[in-house]
Here is the input.
Amino acid sequence: MKYILIMAVFVAMSCSAAFADIMPVRKFSDRQPSTHNTNPWGLVYAGAITENVPGKVSIHPITYELNGITIAANVYTPAGYDPSKKYPAVTVAHPNGGVKEQVAGLFAQKLAEAGYITVAADAAYQGGSGGLPRHTDIPFFRTEDIHGMVDLLTIYPGVDVNRIGMLGICGGGGYTLNAAKSEKRVKSVATLSMFNTGRVRREGYMSGAIKAVQDTLTKSSAARAQTVAGGELLYSDSNAPKLTDEQMQAYLATAPDLYRDGWEYYGVTHTHPNSSGRYALASLMELMTWDATDNIQLINVPLLMMGGSISDSLYMSEDAIEKATGTADKELFIIRGATHIKTYHVPEYVEQEVSKLTEFFGRTL
Here is the structure.
């Protein structure tokens, strides 16, 4: 069987452009179905809601407009939800290339079980949300997505507008940090396995492509020029070569944990048709000049960052927490034995993370 090389379906486009020519990802038509793909709302995480039962946590698919684009979102309400009462609320931002039905939905549901109103929305230009060209991945828009979720919560029945927090996962964690610099409607901020997309696009994952930055920017500029001239819109997987199954397995055997585990999560166990992982190459013109930690000192509310002890992406959370000098109430919480992707779904890790989040939001909201 042949496999097309696209860029990190499994890591939600977490690797740098320099890895696009070597990273094997299975085509959707070749993927094994998720074990949870019969869910009526398309949820693919373990323990997902399968029906709304009175008196229990419920899911409410909604759409709303943000800057002229229709955003698709799921709102989760706690057991016994009464819109005449007031509840704390949390936004949940998904990984790059991921969708609301995956890990973002899991944590939105878990927090709803703890008594919060939560919202997980697909990013503009991605997933079930509108916007053209598809798979645009630009920091301004991803940050606006999070501001938009806060907008929604401020008018959602039952939300206490004085008790809103934010959670971001992987790339959504980096964009959540960015949103929190100016978003003063929120009282606390948390991240899980934070991924600084700008830094990785610029330097490569684990700083493995620093010397390629100018070449990558040149290719991105050329991709934009081609589109402006009426040519084909280029994506991270455009014109990619193919690898045999044996070549793919050989690469994964020595790949960083983010790629290896991500292949399994996004490509096999938690696959979703809206989670393509590709992005428009022209997006790199914006991504590579951006960094989640620029002006991070503007965050002046309690900050919790969580990451796996053996995750090869932990260096990004360590860097961010050190630079977040605007708040004295900050913590880097380590999940022992966890890699980046395994913090998304392994029950023992999720249990620790949810426990820490409920303690953190319970104290700060």
The chain is about 30% helix and 20% strand.
